[in-house]
Amino acid sequence: MKTILRLFPGIIILLSASAIVCAHGVSGTDAEFIEKSTGIQLIPFIYLGAKHMVTGYDHLLFLLGVIFFLYRIKDIGVYVTLFAIGHSVTLLYGVLSDIHVNAYIVDAIIGLSVVYKALDNLGAYKRWFSHQPNAKFAVLIFGFFHGFGLATKLQDFTLSEEGLVANIIAFNIGVEIGQLLALTFILIVIDYWRKTESFIHQAYAANVALMTSGFLLFGYQLSGFIINQ
Q: Of 62, 84, 184, 201, which alpha carbon lies 20 to 30 A from 55's?
């Protein structure tokens, strides 16, 4: 565990780099299954939702930023619930109502959500504006954008109308399961990390890495938007 703690800031940087490359796309095998599936497929879609969240580094980086300085389980539960409500609403609404949002723009905003939370953790808003934005409201709003990010990936496929509602709900349940699994691991590691003498110094470096990754993700997606116009 001590080795993991020493490497944790580096792990964050690696996850940040992975977010730029992978974001939250759907792999070839999974994409083929989604295209060909018909009828109600609850278990497979729960699995796909969980896998999608666990490998969705941009979402995980944002959640890491959200819980970084939260010590009470009650507070963590409130923020994670707000995020879950936000992304569940727009994921279900976006897919079931067939509302299309440009994936590059949504993912660029998701990148900015990582920047926002990192700056919040660094105390930037109090220093710059002498005001602390409502953190709960911000998490809910960014949760909406993260949900649209998930929806845009599913909208890339021709989804069968047969069993669509049940399958999308199952996918969303899977997303929540994946989120809980990922957060459990993150909380275990970060709880041990906080007990070390080097936490405060490394925490600054970790949040700078989060901020940098958010800017890179924003730039990468914005470039994709411009190139594909």
A: 201
Q: How far apart are CA 10 and CA 209, in angstroms?
A: 9
Say how far apart CA 27 and CA 43 lie, in whole Å.
18
pLDDT in tens, 32-67: 777 778 888 889 899 988 988 888 888 889 999 999
Residue in 38, 30, 77, 76 with CA at minimum distance from that of residue 54: 30
Residues whose CB is less than 8 angstroms from the CB of residue 212 and which lie 6 or more positions away in sequence, other chains included:
16
Cα-based torsion angle of the residue sequence 93, 97, 102, 103 in order, rounded to the nearest 10 degrees: 50
DSSP string, 137-175: HHHHHHHHHHHHHHHHHHTTS---STTHHHHHHHHHHHH
For the chain, the first-to-last Cα distance in angstroms comes to 47
Band the pLDDT of 201: cuts 50, 70, 90.
Answer: confident
Q: Is 140 left (phi over 0), alpha (psi -120 to 50) or beta?
A: alpha
Beta-carbon contacts of residue 156 (< 8 Å; ≥ 6 apart): 26, 31, 103
d(CA 189, CA 185): 6
Place of tokens 């279900």: 92
Retrieve residue 216's tokens.
């890179």
Can you tell me the distance from the alpha carbon of 65 to that of 210, in angstroms, rounded to the nearest whole number?
A: 8
Encoded amino acid at 95, one letter? V
Tell me how crowded residue 177 is: count the other CB atoms within 10 A of its CB.
17
Task: Indicate the burial class of 132 (C-beta count within 10 angstroms; 0-12, 13-18, 19 or more).
Answer: exposed
